[in-house]
Amino acid sequence: MTNSMNKKVLALVLAASLPMLAAAQAPIVQTVQKDPEGVVSLSSSATVQVPNDWITVQFSTSKEGVDANAVQAALKDALATALAQSRQVAKPDGHVEVQGGGFSLQPRFNNKGVVNGWSGTTSLTVQGRDMGTIAELAGRIQSMTVGNLDYSVSREAREKVEGDVAAQAIARFRAKAADYAKAFGFATFVVREANVGIDNGQPTPRPFRAKIAMAANVGDALPVEAGSGTVTANVNGSVQLK
């Protein structure tokens, strides 16, 4: 290859490399977008009282003995008896629902680590809107005892008030935003974002008080005191003051 051709090739290589070298040496400019001014974050809530119209009663029993098969059979008999009585009063559409619960069987050990017996538990849950029927059933079931009793607001009752309580919370959110706009010297506001959530206020199931159970005679209906629950709407978000 002649010197003239070498010079031409070198010139072409340099011409192609210059833009890349220039780009590598050019300073990198980062643009940071500032948050808009006059943005305020706020929250609001509204709560309504709703009569409890749903009762949940959990029955349970425990058995123990030296023979695992005998303990298991006793648990099955207790559950089958309670199920049979519960199914007689079961009603559709959420009035009286019957649901079998857990079933467990564990060995017992002596201080030497040797199995010396067995113990087990089983449970049954009856729930629904027909509190009178469920209360009477609780008084009749003798193969199991009442372990937990809980009153709550049914899903249908909650859904009826969710729209109203959410509207109240949103109205309070907007009223707060208007007050903040005025306090900061702005004329109005625009909602940038908002999240609406419903808290159904479902209570934690509580143990049934033994003194109430002892006060009732065999066959007497379970004392019922439903009370009321709450449904709460929460609104969180931000507004742009203008």
From TrEMBL:
Keyword Transferase: no
UniProt KW keywords: Signal
Taxonomic lineage: Bacteria, Pseudomonadati, Pseudomonadota, Betaproteobacteria, Burkholderiales
Pfam families found in the cross-reference section: SIMPL
Protein name, as recorded: SIMPL domain-containing protein
Residues of the signal peptide: 1-22
Keyword Heme listed: no
Coiled coil: none
Biological process, per Gene Ontology: DNA damage response
Domain of life: Bacteria
